[in-house]
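Help! Submission page says 'invalid entity' but I think these are all valid:
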Amino acid sequence: MELQTLWFILIAVLFSGYFVLEGFDMGVGILLPFLGKDDTRRRMMINTIGPHWDGNEVWLLTAGGASFAAFPLYYATLFSGFYLPLFLMLVALIARGVAFEFRGKIQGMKWTNIWDWCIFLGSFIPALLWGVAFSNFVRGVPIDATMHYYSNFFELLNPFALVGGLVSVGGFTLFGAIFLSLKAGAPLSDEARSMAWKVWIPTVVVLVLYLILSYSQTDILSKMGVNPGVVPIGSVLTLLLTGWLVRTKRDGWAFITMALTIVLSVATIYLHLYPRLMVSSLNPDWSVTIQNSSSSPYTLQVMTIVALIFVPIVLVYQGWTYWIFRKRITQKPEDLHY
Amino acid sequence: MDTLSLSQWQFAITTVYHFFFVPLTLGLSIVVAIMETVYVRTGNEVYKRMVKFWGKLFLINFAMGVVTGIVQEFQFGMNWSEYSRYVGDIFGAPLAVEALLAFFLESTFLGVWIFGWDKLSRRMHAVTIWLVAIGSNLSALWILIANSFMQEPQGYQIVGGRALMTDFSAVVFNPNVWVQFPHVLASGLTTAAFFILGISAYQLLRKKEQDFFHRSINLGAIIGAVGIILVILEGHSQAQHIVESQPMKMAGIEALWNTEGPSASFSLFSVLDVPNKKDILQIRIPGVLSLLAYNSLTGEVKGMNQLQAEYVQKYGPGDYTPPVFFNYWSFRIMVGVGMLMLLLLALLIYNAMRNHLEKATLLLKILPFALFLPYIANTTGWLLTEMGRQPWVVFGLLKTKDAVSPTVSAGVVLVSLIGFALVYGALMVADVYLLQKFAKLGPVDEIAGQSAAEQPLHA
């Protein structure tokens, strides 16, 4: 396989990993005001993701670093072109990260309220913006012949992208609720499960709307044909299955199928994009592709060796941390500490 | 202001701000790891309390360093897209390695360390903080490998208007890395030491937890002594290296307008007239600049006027002089503060060895204020590293003015600049508030894995 293709896959894998892992922790953050009726509940919710959120976020940093190393011209076009959304995302991630650390340091409604808002908005804004961003990647943005994109924030907020944003908000919130049903003790776990069902319904609705729109807004029909194949169909089927599993209280299975939904959705987007990374709406030939944006073969070789050594190691020790903290978070004081 | 200057301001503000937190993370992670190791080896509960107390302050600081670090990785692409295009083939690689090798390590195991007190064996728990410390310091190594390419490009060739990597080991083993990294590592230790000294001195004066803070101040003094001596020695070799690799930076730092040889004098104090490229008033010590540059009283040091002429020949017309006034004084502040720290540590160790510490009240009163000294040195050090290289962003290859994103308007950068300033300002208030609160509170005794002050309210 060509190294450029390998790195295209690797970046898709890194984003999948990011959306799965940070997906449920963003979801927990979004649900904080809705399921966290009192301080104990909020503390429980935060502690389900407490040991993990920071490690989860590194998947984004690695995806960013990998894009820079493997496809520097893509990184340059994307990050400068999506300047304002990325700025908003940074502010959100900053507020959220600090909030997790600062919130429990002082007792007092005012203090915790501020940081709870930071956690909620810091989770909601990125969840929304990721859907908006990926929708624009496939829909296309006006990239010119020199691979420059003069950003216009409001152009990015087109109806298709906004529906995409609702899909990602819905999906991550649903995933967060399922995660809580699995990780929190009763009664929070039951409340989370019924919340998952309530979120599942609108998520399916916006996803269907999004899929219909995508046939008019993107070149998916010409790229993928009438039968889009097993991956996109799989992403829809696993989401439908998730609803049934939530209804029948099979939380562990629901978690797995929802994770699959996210992985398959990201895979669908990248399958549709390949070999492009960003579509140019001005001229198909001006799209950013894995060929015209990549690093030299030498750099790709070096980075491949580094990735092949370290990605498995990271997976092992991150997996180990989930094993260490596998127990449910209950209302007992030892679970509420920080 | 245009996109270029606004982007420069934003980069300067966000980077300096980020680097307020980083050195303390680098150093304090090691110190807390040492404390926990002593606890595991001796079983002495005092050290566990030390881990908890200093660890809490470490965590407050760590969070700020992490979140402001995300901005760093993003803004190369956001504000400096032409830079990213030009050097991405080389610069992206260490950044990706940093994420994969260092960020994952520190972030993952920090979570385990915070929440794992009763889930892991003592020994394993101590291992996790060491992994955090190793991860943090490895991340410093890789970002300095990336930065060193900007200071002294190595292992590349220019193809089609882009710098392409030809030799990864030359990028990693760039000679600049190996004078810069130890300097930063040691400044981290020094920052952590003065942090501990300042707070311990404050508590000793209040006669609180004497044994606890006595042990802390002793450990801080040892770490600080090691740190400051290494900082000075490494700083010296770094300066000698810069004489060779970036002579214009050194000439700017020394306000050396014209080449001096065979023996160059050191400016102790100059009133500069930068527009006319001369000094209004100056006190110079003969031979000392040669001594600093070459460890010998003779040796020619090139001046800015000669270098300017040389660079015009080599790189074409343009002004290659860095902001002299700024660099000259940044350097003198950094070195002066470093010497002051050395003096304070010498006094402290002298008193500690004579068991006079409690009586040295003046010194104990000074130390809480000395807590800020490393911050001044860290900031001025980075400012002159980056400003001294101007007008280049990658020395000899790419100028800063050609590196900025052409697609981002000044208005948009202004929005983000104001946004970052407001958010960072608010967070600084919260951070300092928490740090001083817990520093003043002192160690808190624990009940079942949590400190009494932190017992959550039950509904």
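Support: the input was valid. A stray whitespace character was the problem, and the output above is from the cleaned input. DSSP finds 14 helices and eight strands in chain B.
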